[in-house]
Amino acid sequence: MSTETDIEGVSIADRIVGSWDLVEYSTTSDTGKVGYPLGPEARGLIIYSAAGLMSAQIMRRDRTPYRSPNVHSGEMSERSEAAGGYLAYSGPYHVDEENSVVWHEMAVSLYPNWIGDSQKRYVRFDGDWMTLSSDPLVFRTTTLSPALVWRRTVPRTGRTA
Length: 161
Fold this sequence. Notes:
Blueprint (H helix, E strand, L loop, with lengths): L11 H4 L2 E12 L4 E2 L7 E6 L4 E7 L16 H9 L1 E11 L4 E5 L2 E2 L8 E9 L2 E5 L3 E3 L2 E11 L9
Antiparallel strand pairs: 1-2, 1-3, 1-11, 3-4, 4-5, 5-6, 5-7, 6-8, 8-9, 9-11, 10-11
InterPro entries: Lipocalin-like
Protein name: Lipocalin-like domain-containing protein
């Protein structure tokens, strides 16, 4: 059986380390309909460290800014909209090379139900592109297959203060 470990002789654990920009976050229903949970222009960043920690941040591009300049003073409706358009979690990760899987362990999460959870993500590489997917999710009568396409972040050539 060919796994991602065979590609270019580099393991998934080595290839995944670094930062990745979100290209697309989509779901495909069992009927073939494609949806975009955070909109077709969602933005995001996922980082995997060599030390085995990861952080994922994904957001709807068109979120409304708070009227207040204080980060903790938004109106409840503003906070609700902001959180509803954002997905974030961080924690340890480990790779199952044989099954081309990376496990995300949620130490912290915007969605409190995920704290302490461990979630499986299938990983596939194509050059500087990485696709993460999960087992299909069932919502009432619909089955959705999520996929997140990432592109390796291009390093900046200079620093600004």
